[in-house]
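thought: fold this chain, then report.
action: predict
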Amino acid sequence: MARGMKRDADPVDGLLLLNKPSGMTSNRALQLVRRLLNARKAGHTGSLDPAATGMLPLCFGEATKVCAYLLDADKRYRVTAKLGSATDTGDGDGHQTESKTVPALSANEWHDVLQGFCGESTQIPPMYSALKKDGKRLYELARKGEVVEREPRAIRIDAIRLLEQAGDRLVFRVTCSKGTYIRVLVEDIAHRVGTVAHTAQLHRESVGDFECENMLDMAAVEALAEQGLAPLRARLLPADVALTDMPGISIDVEDAERFCGGQTVAVDVEEEEGLARVYEADKRFLGVGELSGEGMLAPRRVFLTQEETP
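observation:
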């Protein structure tokens, strides 16, 4: 290829679990990896704040169809809070707005405080967030000094465990539902004990069934890319690994053709309802179907292989 000529992007399919570096937006990280893979289509699931690090599932090609399912997945974070200091953004990038004395609590007392946040509750999203109000991002309004009313959102904390507490430093691990703002959780924990706080460090350890040992940091991604496209593409995960919480259903070749054509097919699974992973003869992944409870399987998301992709 002559110098200066732009290479056409390829129909690359699969997922890559990136350990997003601090100081980079989720979209910037996506575009960098997309360029290194020379992938035609890409998307990410569950943005991380620029200052945050950790797991950012990047989806390419047909795997972008699992983005919606991963957005609903539970997340696990390691959180470091700075007690006694509040900021306008809720993290270390903002300006301090308030300071308060930090109460001298024992580890057992902090444990009890944290356990009080387990279960279902509601949370008011922060002004510095990507949510929209009348077509504008809340953080855009916040930067202008505007504060608007936000509706409380239902969240769920499944587990929260104290890891360290010393002086104004509080470290804990939390497993939570989608839509949980850790910055708000940190502020609420501080308010519970009569002080203020902001999130000093935030690291996402897992998304759904994806664990941290499968992540690649940006330096590793770049090192693989220097060896050529093949080594980096070999690290991509198949799309169906993001759907392991769904049962797997196998259908024969004829039904597979009907399913991929948008038709409902009969299966030997009665009384079961809900979404399922669908395979042709226990091998090729076809997509996501919905079981009716009466032995019928309707296509909801059909996945095409590279050979089938137009």
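thought: worth noting. The two ends are 24 Å apart (CA to CA).
final: tokens above.
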